[in-house]
# Entry
Amino acid sequence: MKLSDVTLRRVKATDKPQKFADGGGLYLYVAPTGGKLWRMDYRFEGKRKTLSFGAYPAVGLKDARARREEAKGQIAAGIDPGAHKKAAKEAARADTDSAFEIVAREWFDRQKDGWAESHAGKIMARLERDIFPVVGGRPVRDITAPMLLEALRRIESRGAVDTAHRALQTCGQVFRYAIATGRAEHNIAADLKGALPPVRGGHFASVKEPAAVGGLLRAIDAYTGNVIVRAALRIAPYVLVRPVELRRAEWAEFNLDANEWRIPATRMKMRELHIVPLARQVREILAELHQYTGGGRYLFPSMRANTATISDVTLLAALRRLGYGKDEMTVHGFRSMASTLLNEKGYNRDWIEKQLAHGERDTVRASYNFAQYLPERRKMMHEWADYLDELRGQSLSGTKV
# Structure
């Protein structure tokens, strides 16, 4: 007799397993513990096998019968329904394991130890905000160029063209990792070359004309805002470091007897210990600043809490307060300002690049190269500081102020 919903609702567990048949090999297995499972016995290639369809009542009688008929159809077609179900599960699991977000996070975990914390944070934030919502759940091998371009267009639409290019670069690295791990065969990010508009400018806005640099330095000296912010702006032109490296500077990193600032590899973008020779002008500023923050960890602590540092926005706002628009000067612009003028003055390009920490990407070599060109760089940095003082003392017409 075939089963009915009424019969199924009345079924009670006993101290022994029970089977309630519905025909065609389908039956409800009732365990002593109370579990009710749909099963189907069948024969394939002369062997007796059992197929599971799920638990009652989550899988109702009607659904169980439909699955039985589907299985019978597979058997008639020469397909083992049990093997087919297992293969489908494995395929679904493979799709999950090869989802872009899973692959990207796996790639990120393998790479992040070689990056500065701030750099790693920016990469993951970019993926989570802009890429994962569009293609994160799709298997890497199924993502097409138009799909990825859709995510990039969303970034571009808010005016962040440079961010879109950086996101595309990151996606290309994820695809290459997917290929290496057997989860993709083609880097579709490479197919999008030329699909995004070029980044305008290509560099952070900065003052580069010598006379204008002098005006900027005088404006910073005249800044009447927070003394900590003023000190950060005064030091920035002399040290050539990235804004985040400057803002998070710690007193313990400075050796004034050796006239140098050693930024640990953990704080550097390239994960390489970086030495900044300190000119006399920087030491004088540090001596003044020490009166305000020397008792704490950071040179430039936040005005809200000593456990945090001032933000890039704070420094940027100070430049705006001095009258420099976003197309004229940025905090990062102090680096390009120095790079341009030092190259124009004929200093060895390798010395400049090393001092800008644009250096070695090979972490093994980098561990030995942090002091490369150090005597030359010390001389260059001291002469650079004196040159800035010279510019500070000139008017726009070139005469002394």
Remarks:
- The longest helix spans residues 161-180.
- The chain is about 50% helix and 10% strand.
- The domain at 210-392 is CATH 1.10.443.10 (hpI Integrase; Chain A).
- The CA atoms of residues 194 and 238 lie 38 Å apart.
